[in-house]
């Protein structure tokens, strides 16, 4: 029988040696690979009630005294499943058992998706991150800590490959996203390891039936594509981790060394110019990376590998006035002065209605 996790939360010194070392390894990953120090910080932990977030909450609780952490939980009820209220109650009990405040919100994602013309996944993701930002600011959290693991990373890489994402973004989601104050300390840990920890410690968690719904692309990748890759190559997740590291190293090199290309001239509020002389002196790899970096600095814009190649081909061939429209509001125009990135003015958007219900925090 599972132990009563709410009455007897596990501290680092109480853990079996294997799992104590594992928790310290999570700390080491954050420090050495994500180059982040979390000692003495306030962390916001999204707790869905599922296996991943439940294990993460227990890991951070085990490290709390060791690292002098101030922990808060947050649970968002999207109102999409009849059992979602039970998930919220479970999350509240879990946080109480770990002696951390729990911020619970109730939203109507289906209504918001309909009003905004978004898919359910997109609307849910928008709501979650908006509320994470709001609560993190309110409680003074240094980081929002997400429970994405190596299987999630592999799924993310496959989804990016399907979308035509270029390098190094093809390496998957970042472990540390400073722009949104997000940490993913389990990113190179397999789902199998998390399940083993939960089972050996007798932790309880809830299963979300929507994770098996083949309507969603991520679920099809999770239940069809990823098992195929793992069957063909049992160490596929290890190679995913290696690819993730190589992508991060490339990003770090580019950020540290910099390139003249990235000193784009701002001509007005809606236009950026990479000068012709900088383009002419640079390699193809540097040009492609510069286009991508500029695009990703513009809110709402996304790069796509085929479009980046089209743009660079036009630059090399000196096709003046060639325009390449990227996903989102930004287009690139080849001019005599260089490549100009122009952003269409945003249309005014109504505020998204958030039914916060009773905030238990």
Mean pLDDT: 87
Indicate the structural class. Answer: alpha/beta
CATH topology of the largest domain: Rossmann fold
Q: Strand sequence of the main sheet, in spatial order?
A: 3-2-1-4-6-5
Strand content: 5-15%
User: Which superfamily, in CATH terms, is the homologous superfamily of the largest domain?
Assistant: HUPs
Distance between the termini: 31 Å
CATH architecture of the largest domain: 3-Layer(aba) Sandwich
How much helicity do the residues have?
40-55%
What is the C-alpha radius of gyration, as a whole number of Å? Answer: 23 Å
What does it look like?
By secondary structure, the chain is α/β, with parallel strands linked by helices. It has two domains: 12-244, 3-Layer(aba) Sandwich (Rossmann fold); 260-343. It has helices at 17-33, 51-67, 84-97, 109-116, 120-139, 150-163, 191-201, 217-232, 236-257, 276-280, 284-296, 305-316, and strands at 42-46, 70-77, 102-106, 143-145, 176-177, 182-183, 265-268, 271-275, 323-325, 330-335, 338-343. The strands form two sheets. It has a six-stranded mixed beta sheet with strand order 3-2-1-4-6-5, sandwiched between helices. A hairpin with a 2-residue loop joins strand 7 (265-268) and strand 8. Helix 1 (17-33) packs across helix 2 and helix 2 packs across helix 7 (191-201). The longest helix is centred in the last third of the chain and has 22 residues, at 236-257. The radius of gyration is 23 Å and the shape is globular. The two termini are 31 Å apart. The relative contact order is 0.12. Residues 1-7 and 348-361 have low confidence and may be disordered.
